[in-house]
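Subject: Interface between my chains keeps coming out wrong

I've been trying for a while to get a sensible model of this assembly. When I model each chain on its own everything looks fine, but I need the whole thing in one frame so I can look at the contacts. Pasting all components below, labels as-is. Any help appreciated, I'm running out of ideas.
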Amino acid sequence: MSASCSTAQWLTDALVAPPTEAISATELARLRADLARDLHTLGADLPPGERLQIDAFKVLVAHRHPDRCMSNDDSFVPSPRLCRRAVGVAAVNRCVRGLSAGPAVAVAKVLADGLEDLSGESASGVRAPWWAQWYAGLAQGGRAVVAAEAVTWATQLYTALEWTSLPGFPVIGGRDDWWQCPGGSQLVLKGRVEVRSLVQRRLALLVVGTGRCQVDWRVELGYPGLVAALVRDAQVAPCRVVGVWPQSGQVRVLPVDLPMLRAAATALVSAVATWVDGRIEAQRMALASGHSALAGSRRGVNA
Amino acid sequence: MIEPDGLLRRLRGDGVPRPEVDPGLAGGLRDWLEDGLVEAVATLPVGAGVVRVNKESLSQVLLCEAHLLARRQAPRVVTVGLARGSLVDALFRQWVTTGVVDGGWNDALAALEVEGDPDGVASFVAGLAAGPRRRMMDEVTEQVGHITAGWPPLSPTWLPRTQERLEVPLCGGRVVLAGVVDLVLGRPAQDRASVCLVELKSGGRRLEHRADLHFYALLEALRSGAPPFRIATYYSATGELDAERVDEDTLLNALSRVLDGAVRLCRLAGGAEPARTPNPLCAWCAGLPECAPGRRRAGTDVARVADALGGLDGATA
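Reply #2:
Try treating it as a single job with all components included. I did that and got this:
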């Protein structure tokens, strides 16, 4: 790939190239049913009352560090790095629609709007973005770091594509895809992508990765492709997932076809199994420590 | 101290045409690096972690392999120089991003705290006695004064972004070249080089600052397929700017240095005995008691401790 033909143009062309693979409605329905059955079986083993929400991060953790899957702590602590994506996609949206002169201006506007939404939340009924409450509580120096992280992230996405070459209006950020495993399971899948563009009625997805592309990039890109396919009809299922890692300049293109979806489903089931095992083990250890603490206190009473 | 107009002219390289991008250059550099590393990577044990090559590990391993290992094993010490560098970095970032630093010292501390104070700088500052703390506040305030006087607001069309991370995997990801650039300006290159990299230094001028910049120029070339047209170091203590253009010689020299260092880092990761190279920092090396050549060079077997209040220049950001 030469720099002179513009990396952004090359990436854009790769994203919106005509679909080469088709998925039949029957095949997709069978995949959905098989996956629902496997996940339902796994979900039934979850400790009572526990719910498991899976996203791409959790799938990768299960594959890379299965020992870290014992935590059921889903609490979320905001940080500049964690909210740069949310602020960044909103900023890029403004730039692409010509509402801001560049990512720095756009980020400043998005952050200011977040504070405004927060202050008028109860009166206007407008819901402030999730980061606004946390951001509002920061001192000026902390807010500057949030803005700086978001500007750098947004600039990387903004310069990654030739936006005017995309057909129609791409969805930048947008709602995550959610798929509730059928059959009353406590399992929910969440798929997140940065850009969705329509190519001959099918979606082309762009995912922005952090750091460098790893050997399991097919899992990283396949997961959001799978969730996007599960929540849509076959005719409008995604045609490809393109991954870009701005920090390393790497790009990977994953066409969405049945073998790819099957492989992503296998990786997902394996990851869910690891998380369910982790939850069971965590509960077993908690019960064991509870019993020993109880036994210890009884010994103390008897003594 | 450089004036704002002069600073921008020098960053833009006014009067110097921007070089055309050679589409084969980055691929050629990568091939050269990977060919040079292949033997060293082959000796890495199965399951060995990724060998990370950054500006610190590079300069340390080239100075003395034993010194690098001793530094890795020694507890990390926050010095005044390191703390000052982190605080000034945070305020430079704030100035470039928001154009406002009226909170000065408090803004800098808030910036470190919102990121969880990963280097312990905020805690270090909080633990300083009133006198040294006042001196550091004065120094940071003076340096930020240079920044606000010397740096005009940057046009949003220059796409200024701060603390941009670069990561270049080589040899299937077993070796990773990595860096964080303080300020990047310009759109990614098309036909002509269009990116300028700036490093901020709060300490004095040192020879290795240029080598650091050249390393970043190489990373940018490998990452984006086009080298930057300009690289610069801004010294916030004096308000001076050292800027230079990037040509093929710059990249080839950087490549040769990276290759030398990366091969050594791979050897060490493979468990090889470190080479000992006596040098002026031997007297401060944590490994001095076990290092005969170092003891001879330093004339003692008791390592001096990096003065947390004065700091070592080598440890400054």
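Reply #3:
Confirming on my end. The mean pLDDT of chain A is 91.
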